[in-house]
Amino acid sequence: MKTLELAKKYQEYVVKMRREFHMNPEASMKEFNTSKRIKEELEKIGVEYVSCGGTGVVATIKGSKPGKTVALRGDIDALAVIEENDKEYASKVDGLMHACGHDAHGAMLLGAVKVLNEIKDEINGTVKFFFQPGEEVGKGAAAMIADGAMNGVDGVFGIHVSSDMPTGTINAEPGARLASGDMFKIVITGKGGHGAHPENTVDAVVVGAALVMNIQTIVSREFSPLEPLVITVGSIKSGTRFNVIAPNAVLEGTVRYFDPTYTEKVKSAIERIAKLTAETYRASAELEYTVVVKPTINDETCAKIAAEAAAKIVGKDNLLKLEPSTGGEDFSEFSSVAPGVMTRLGTRNKEKKTDYPHHHNKFDVDEDGFVYGVAYYVQFAIDFLNNYKK
Ligand code: ZN
User: Which residues make up the environment of ion ligand 1, defined by Cβ < 5 Å?
Assistant: First the structure.
């Protein structure tokens, strides 16, 4: 209860910061001004910080008592979406928008810095604040880790706002919560020529078409129906003209799963089918396969601490259960280094029109949800550190 009261003190500040970030969105890994503004705010608060992973920032508050180190993470990047909101804080940058709520994450994390700085005498250990760039491209967390962000961190906690959940609700559950986000690209090489004389060519369009169909059998025939797996071919590019046989085709797609052992199995299945399908039609195929984000798997203990902390903030009845999502989150980079938990905070409010899906050009968040978010960051940090108190 006390945490919520403290969070309320900074509600106006958090809303102001969120609107500032919202009006000035920046692309992934290019959050130069956002990063600068965060540092200025940390300076004003009087908290030490370092740049990390390019445009990322890590702030640190050491409690007066020794203990473990917990990291609170908020991502800060925007998206290439043209905003269609007519609110006074709408994006001022053409073609860029905070359409996923990362503006709220950065602002709430600043609010949490203020609260925890105020009560640092009561903290049993150290709290780190990860203002993370480049979540939307799955690069920021890895860049911060490469820069040493996770050194000495014993547990990590993340919040994502959600327009699927009403304001004043929280989701915190153990286990696999978000899927991997792998990317593949298949380049097919055939032999071009005149559309009237196919016998002199190797048609890459035909190979591409066959390949799209054959890839579908990986999910349906090679993997268990009881374990989720998605393989989507999202793009196929080939050919220049109606009467020209295309020499090349390029297929691109994404793979989603929760079981980390799937990476190699799926990759080798795609490769086998690509090569052998191409060979069937006298062409060749090369596969590029990249794990952009790993599955996000919430640690059992961290999830328990997070659920109990949430109950203190919004009440037990407002703890919602959610199905895992085949969406991806690069929070998984942090939580594969130390135990972690990724949670969701409701910001859905029909009257305020904050019920549009994420990445929609009318996406918005209910700012009344920020107090719960700030309090939740703070409560988790305190509870995590108390749990491991020496
Ligand atoms: Zn997001």
Answer: 100
